[in-house]
Fold this sequence. Notes:
The chain is mostly helical and 1003 residues long. It has 38 helices and eleven strands.
Amino acid sequence: MIMIPSDSGFPSMHSSSALIPESTQPRADGNEAGGGQLLQQRLALVEDLWRTVLRSECPPEQAERLLRMKQLSDPVLPGEHPAGTDALIDLIKEMDLAEAIAAARAFSLYFQLVNILEQRIEEDTYLESINRSQDQAEQFDPFAPPLATQTEPATFRELFERLRRLNVPPAQLENLLQELDIRLVFTAHPTEIVRHTVRHKQRRVASLLQQIETQPLTPSGATDSVRLQLEEEIRLWWRTDELHQFKPSVLDEVDYALHYFQQVLFNAMPQLRRRIVASLAASYPDVRVPSSSFCTFGSWVGSDRDGNPSVTTEITWRTACYQRQLMLERYVSAVQHLRNQLSISMQWSQVSAPLLESLEMDRLRFPDVYEERATRYRLEPYRLKLSFVLERLRLTQLRNQQLADAGWRTPPEGLPSSTPGNAPGDALHYGSIAEFRSELELIRTSLVNTDLSCEPLDTLLTQVHIFAFSLAGLDIRQESTRHSDALDEISRYINPDRAYGEMDEAERVAWLMEELQTRRPLIPPAVSWSAATAETVDVFRMLHRLQDEFGSRICGTYVISMSHSVSDLLEVLLLAKEAGLVDPSSRHADLLVVPLFETVEDLQKAPEVMEQLFQTPLYRDLLPKVGTQGLLLQELMLGYSDSNKDSGFLSSNWEIHQAQIALQDLASRQGIALRLFHGRGGSVGRGGGPAYQAILAQPSGTLQGRIKITEQGEVLASKYSLPELALYNLETVTTAVVQNSLVTNQLDATPSWNELMSRVAKSSRRHYRALVHDNPDLVAFFQQVTPIEEISKLQISSRPARRKTGARDLSSLRAIPWVFGWTQSRFLLPSWFGVGSALSEELEADPDQLTLLRTLHQRWPFFRMLISKVEMTLSKVDLDLARHYVTSLGSAENHEAFEQIYATVAEEYARTKELVLAITGQERLLDADPALQLSVDLRNRTIVPLGFLQVALLRRLRDQNRQPPMSESPSSDGDGRTYSRSELLRGALLTINGIAAGMRNTG
């Protein structure tokens, strides 16, 4: 049986837990109640499907017990104990392992079905907002909040109309739109726990649900047919293993990330452009639209090598080839469609002379294609032209396959010619995206000159501008010491008396500047370096080869994690120079070096470090120029994860906020354009939260139309799995950037507010570090009372959970599993701990400060965002269930210490919750967002049983690690089955999977 210790505290079922994804909360607008009603209405269908599938797939008695568990976990009213708590506990006690696994799978399925349902509701809400903004474009709401304080997502139509009513000059808006540069980076932190196979089934279920929801007048027979298809699809899903069968390779992760481009984003981006064009035409008809590539994508998947030995130079090369393969396949399909459509005859339509001239050139270069197609398309020039385009795409595909097979070390002259008989310089494949784009624009110009338009061609051109041949730019990331270690080894070989590793910072900078400006190569050829140094040097050589073949767009950014000093950036420039990526003599660089400031100390030092670099003429000369004014561009990355793990939520956010202001002020004085790269995770503890509010909360004046944001893990699924959902997120991110850049305020510069926040942040950090870093028992507490060790056995990532193999200290643990462990055990400690004590100290010193805090919450976007995130996280905390983890999984020798840690956490939770409610003026968490609150109450009904199951399985698993396998029967003379460690681990992992689905959050 699954044994639940009778002496442990059982969690109450009334804990209010916000279980929808932190990055995609429902809108808190006039449709709050409507969204909640939709959830209630549609939930009946999902629950009926769930019950039907369980009854068809499980033995009758087991199915009824699982349904009984669901019934017993339903509270009578929000905030009350469920009527059958004791019966639920008894039911779980009686389960054997097989039934416990079935329960974990059943509840995981339930939550994932509800997740799909809520995504569909979010899509519907977005579509409704689009229709509403179009219908009410000419109506003015006198009670709408000022744009400077509005935090609810706005569509293009709503925003541009409000800007017009505020008399924002068209020239000012146009200047901003021409500078608009939004980059969304899919990262190499794969916290996505759902298998790719299961994700496909979820998309199928979502599609079938949409058919039922959007066709209420469909004949009953058709509706019944769709209902049967839904049941069949969910039954297939039930019989599919939820757990990854093997640890995914880096290329598997690449495939996971590119799934969203293939299924959604390729088609969504042209629609996004059409929406912004139409909305501008309605409110600002004379304003030039932004470029087609105002929003582009990047990726760390396959290129982020920080702490991941699996990401090799060969892997990055193959990733680039794979991405180009996908784009070429897409373009071939699109061009074939165009050729079918553009059947225009020269007998009935004019054709431009340049197009006819290009056909003559194509005839000479592709005689075989001409012979094959000329008769058929003799009077159809567009079809003939597109036949030549298809041939060039085919040759480019062939070339790409040769590159993938040969690897990056093979020089261009070592590849077989894709066109036998032609010299290498006469290759007929597309050498750049510009060649492909120019041929499409030639066709478009000819059509426009004859008063014709072709939407599929315009769509293709938009995709070409956004995705090129590369799909997404690959950002290389590596930890700073890898570069200094490599240069130390190289310097010791050249001059043993002047080792780089023994120099202080000033000496390092002087040596690096000297080496950067000499024409002599630094790295001798034919020397056998250590494996780490050889790999570091090879990365830059591979980058040079990559840019030669694919163009600089495929990989033009190098991120240095754990950046501390000026030398960290100069080291990368020097290694890039050695590979031919940087030429100081001509003041040209093909690589943008991006420091990542992560810890609080590094964030505080960042302005000083960058000022020294900006005052170095050589460094300035190597920066690229952007925008209409040709300003020098510096990209800077701010790390949320490690700064949070280092100093807690409040301190981390304040230091990042302050760093942005100081860095933008510095850049403005130096005449440099700044693009801030926000390393946000999925959880609040790693910078997560609704993107719209987060962008509006950025210091006024720091964006200026430019932003770069990471998109990670479960955030990808919650934002980009459905077309309209993807468009909603893309549109609201764009409107937030425009709104923040145009509608400025001086609230961030209020001295008394800054002094208050500095005090609170400092106090919060002290309290957080006292528990997390200074308490000697905290690491053991975390390892024992959370499933961190079992999480590391989930086959969800090619990256190790720890930076240093074998190390079990806090510093070696990555931020993702750190957050994941606290989330599973329902503490969620990294996202709120220390906030209550800091605010309490402020109020104890001056009780009247509560009035000021309420004012800040009403008027200051940064503070409102801060409190909103804490409130959301607190609503997810379940301390009763967390105590069950402590009492059941904590070792006897640590009992007293663990009890003290739990008491500290519980006291801080109560204090923080009380103060958040006092500041917001609410009686209950999330009172200001009824739709979210209703979702919380509905979703929280079924997650607690998974916590019981997880604790019981973890205890059995860990006991078995310490002693021989035990019989499943609780009695000494029972004949129960003995389960292996692998079976118990599988059960535990399934509960992790289920809780992650219920919380819609991993790390």
